[in-house]
Amino acid sequence: MKSLLLILLSAGVVVAVPAAMGGYPYYMGVAVYAVVLALFGLSVNLTVGYLGYISFGHAAFFGLGAYASAMLTSYLGMNYWLTLLLAPLPGALLGVLVGFASLRVGGAYFAIATLTAAEILHILVNNLMDLTRGPLGIRVPRPKIEFLANLGIDFYQYYLGIGLLVLLLVVAGLRRLLASPIGRSWAVIKESAPLAESIGIATLRSRVLNIALSGAIAGLAGALFVPRTLVVTPELFSSGLSATGLLIAILGGKATLIGSILGGVVFAALPEALRFIEEYRMAIFALLLLLVVRIQPNGLAGLMSFRRRARAPEVATATTSSDLMFKPGEAMEVKGLSKQFGGLKAVSAVSLRFEPGETVGLIGPNGAGKTTSLSLISGFLAPSAGEVSFGGKSVSGLAPHRLARLGLVRTFQHTAICGRLSVFDNVLAAVPNTETVFTAIRGGQGYREREARRRGLAQAYLSQVGLSERAADEAGSLPYGDQKLLSIAVALAAQPKVLLLDEPAAGLNHTEARALASLLKSLRERGLTIVIVDHNLKMIMEISDRIYVLNRGESLADGSPQEVRNNPAVIEAYLGTVWNKEGVVHA
Amino acid sequence: MTWDLILQQTVNGVAHGMSLALIALGLTMVFGVLHIINFAHGELYMIGGLGLVIGMTHFHLGYVPSLALAIVAAGAIAWLVDGVGVRPLLDQKDGHSTVLLTTFAISMLLNEGALAIWGPSPVRVDGFEGLTSFGPIVVTNQRWFVIGLGLVVLIAIEFILRRTHIGKSVRAIASSAYAAEVVGVNVRKVRTITFVAAGALAGLTGGVMVPITMFTPSIGHNIIIDAFVVVVVGGMGSATGAVVCGLLVGLAQAYLSTLTSEQIGSAMVYGLLLITLLVRPTGLTGRGRA
Q1: For the domain with range A11-253+263-302, which CATH number is right: 2.40.128, 2.60.120, 1.10.10, 1.10.3470?
Q2: Which of A101, A178, A293, A570 has its CA 20 to 30 A from that of A254?
């Protein structure tokens, strides 16, 4: 019912706006330009606002779309309106290329790579005269639709109508996508890429997908711009256009859709208003960008508090406790694990074995190599030597997200949560899914049922750690102890067979540590294999079935808590035996 | 290409490469100490060029006093850039990505401001006049000056980094700002000094190159992309990488410009950046991360 209303309303906008503006081709031209810029702003925002990667060369995608459309129309004689379907492709391909090239190293490289890609294209279209006619540009005749013209509809009326339709479709698609597991992955990556990997999100693929989509939407905007300009020139690749897109996204409001639409309207109207100081226009835009970034980083949308508050989760379908039983996992075996940092041997020839369903403590003095071992096992560090196998199969060298999908999930010593997402959304983002862009946008009954099941699971994991009450709160506002518990709920939602906990009790007070211990015990009773690194020996002794002791990167001892407690080598490693004259401990 | 042409382009390429080395060195030093990429770095080169032009054509100063003006102007603007767009943001959450935006906005502001006030037409000024010829190969005195001064500056920077107190502070912060702070290095002050010094160096480079290339407001935009190619290929944060790759990129552009047009040659060199990122994302020296 609600969606039917929306469709009717949208159809109304697409028809009514051009109808109302009939007879004012100048204003319709500005309105079309606003639609083009809004699309362009949305594409920039997808990357800058939702993924957190800044692009200084989005004009490259825009220009590619415009050139693709113009070339198909004027060289191959294709109907312009059909080129709108093909024009996004080159932008998407460039997005894959630039994204894959730069995202492995870091955000600043993405900014550099996009700037450079736009510059290369700017030079090429200026110089490849045979293909692009250089600075003269490619002329495209006004693409009239005879049928509509015969009905007495002005060219600009149906051009604007089609533009609005495209914009509405893109916005509707993006809304669904951003609310889907795919959008949630981007939100986690934006806050912490290692966290995303640890809960099974393929971060590189997910980021490249985002850039490719952004490139496609920018390309679509470029193609839609063609009938407005009628001459496609190299200026479409200029850094000024890239900056305008960035300014629309940021002035409008990062990570809001309505903001980019507002921004598009503002920047379509602004050049008209600033016509009397045309030569200062870009300088004013630059100053505006600087001011917005420094003074109002949330943009117009932030000013008008359009930003969505964390939604209280709808009460999810009750998930029975049997869903939360952990399947009996496989044994995990680590053989001869070594890691060298330069001349330092952080871990050497450590062998460990975790049987299904047991809780194993990994202890040792500072610098023993506990956390390094955990990072090696979970794929965050590549071992110098050694073998990790899980259920009899070698899993050495797999990326962290692949290991997480196999059931090997870790947490971090420095609590990693998405502080700006709600507590509930933190957990929800970790629930495994197999959605694609296509299934997420299509929606439908099956998709809604799968989403409901995921929400139910998230709810259940949250209540497992006792945080249901705080589901709607911003995760960053939780007290430290609750954040630790939340990070465990997040790890549980990723559905581990083996849970690797890196110092979960660090920084917790006595009561909080007790609560943690009883949580871990109850998880063990449900069949989860737990490996825990911590300095809280009392807790480790209490909950562990077996304990491995590491010292200076090597295995020192292993056995039941009782055996380890009485092992002289362990006592020596922890307390030292030789006291010098000043009474200082020598280990 | 004939041998004469190759030799001629080698000399030209070394002079051009020296300027790229100096620009890239400033960029990479700022990265090493502040862990940011200064997108406005190229515009400080442009400001240096503009300072020189204003000194010589408006104040009718000689070349050397105008060069001093270029250095001071670029250093002063760098200090402003640091105060407005860098220093206040460094310790904020997400500060490093915000600095990308502020320095990008400032670079556009400087570029478009110069364009609006100065206009796009190129301006020619003379530096050291005269030339030396070896048979068919001609080297202008200005190019000798660029090569010689570049060497002197590189040696001076090496000396400062190794031997002086401030240089040691810079190296300490580059390896760990936290540890440097603990042992009493004034991290904020050293950051600002590094940023301004890198800016003044860019201004100096602009001042020595403009008599060769002529001045337009767009020279900053062109050189920053060259400099990005140099630092990405050479490895972000590596001084040796910046100098070696600066010279190599200068030579590559000089040779390519005779094989094809200068612009297409530039596009091919820019392509190196993307290829490096695809094949060996941490650059040839393999250290940098951003």
Answers
A1: 1.10.3470
A2: A101
